[in-house]
Structure formats: C-alpha cells, structure tokens
Amino acid sequence: MLQNAISRTRYALATLGLLVVSAAFLPTLAQTTSISGVVTDKHGAVIPGVNISATNKDTGQTSPPVTTDSEGRYAIPNLPPGHYEVRATLPGFAVLRVEATIGLGRTSAVNITFDDSQPVHGAIQISTPRPGTIKGTVKTESNGRPIRNAEIRIQDQGALQPQFMVRTNGSGRFSKSHLPPGTYKISVKASGFQDGEQNVELAERQVKAIAFTLHTP
Questions:
Q1: Which of 92, 44, 33, 94 is CA-nearest to residue 72?
Q2: Hey, which CATH number is domain 132-214, 3.20.20.210, 2.60.40.10, 3.60.150.10, 3.90.76.10?
Q3: Could you list the pLDDT tens digit for every one of the 217 residues in the chain?
Q4: Is the CB of residue 106 less than 8 Å from the CB of residue 33?
Q5: Angle at the Cα of 180 from the Cα atoms of 99 and 186, rounded to 5 degrees
Q6: Fold of 33-127
C-alpha cells in the first residue's frame, strides 16, 4: 500500500512538472513564425538539395540550415518576427541572398531563383526587394484642419500585430519609408475623433500618398 501511494505521488509530480514546462513553452511558440518557399532555376525547374538558412538582421542569429526536397521546397519554422536574410547555397553556383520581413503568426513565402546560365564560384548574388514609402495627411472632417500627434499604425496584411507606428507632425503629415513591397493596413487614432483605416498596395520603390479625414463621435 505504501509503495503504491509513493508511486502515485511520483506520477502526479511528474505530470504536474510536464504541465508547468508545457505552459511555459506555449507563449514562446505563439510568438514564432516561419519562412517557406520553392527554389527553382531561371526556367522554372525545381532544384533539390539546396542548403537554406535564415539570419535575423536585428539579432544576428542564424537558423539551423535546411535542405530543399525533391520538389525544391523548404521550410524554416519557429522564427521570431523580424527582418531576415535568407541564404541559399548550391555547389557550383553563387551564394544567393534574399531579404524578407516576416510578421507574427504567419508563414512568409520566400521563393528563390538561381541563374544557371552563368554558374560562378565564390561570388554572391543579392536579390533585395526595393522598398517603398507610405506617406499621408490626417485632417478634421468639419473644417479640414490638420490633426497633430495622431497615431498611425502600419500593418502588413496577414500579420497579427502592427509592425510600424508613426505620428503626425504639426501639419498633420506622416511618412514611413523603407517598407517592403506588399499590402498594408493603415489605421489612425486621434484623441476626440473616430478611428480611420485604409488598405494600401505598395509596389517596389513606390511613394504611396494617402489622406485621412476623421469625424468627431
């Protein structure tokens, strides 16, 4: 009887310990994201056996390398949100580097294309999407006066949280540069006014101008 009681106690403690560890680990998982994609040549043929890694440009941490499968696909899971340099290495070809920004709780597709017409050794090709700028104004609906210190949140569509935040100046203007091409949700908040929101499609090297007119409640 005593031995059975001791065994049950040990089992309960072990189970409790597992639950505590799991509960501590869940928030970490909830804050991660992933990068996946397909590696092809310039003709669209998939390339298996390519080594892929991702380096967080903010922290300098590099993920463990993965290798593309028979269909040229790869996936790098459990990455913190941020700005990354994805590095693709294939023997006999240039090292290819592609920059990507990934948001919380989403899988970002980063497809990589090797130019097989001119294989080189030791060289580096860099493929970086050229960033754009979103700028605009915030004014009152009643008299068109600028609203200063309004909070502008810029969120990549598909991300769970806004990635950038700026405020309007004394002229009611705002601007955010160095944004990767993509679709963004722009929301504005100002004390004493109803919130505003717009969706914006930003192309490479584009300067996108938008305007908000806020109403009083």
A1: 44
A2: 2.60.40.10
A3: 545 544 554 554 444 444 444 434 344 444 678 898 888 887 788 888 889 999 998 888 999 999 999 888 999 998 988 888 899 988 777 788 888 887 766 677 888 887 754 444 444 444 556 778 999 999 999 999 999 999 999 987 655 555 789 999 999 999 998 887 888 999 999 999 999 999 999 887 899 999 999 999 8
A4: yes
A5: 150
A6: Immunoglobulin-like (2.60.40)
**Which segments of the chain belong to CATH 2.60.40.10?**
132-214
Contact predicate 93/120, CB 8 Å? yes
CA triple 72-77-79, angle to 5 deg = 130
Number of helical (H) and strand (E) elements in the chain, helices listed first: 1, 16
Reported in sequence order, the residue ranges of 103-181 that DSSP labels E, i.e. its strands, are 107-109, 112-114, 124-127, 132-140, 151-156, 164-167, 173-179
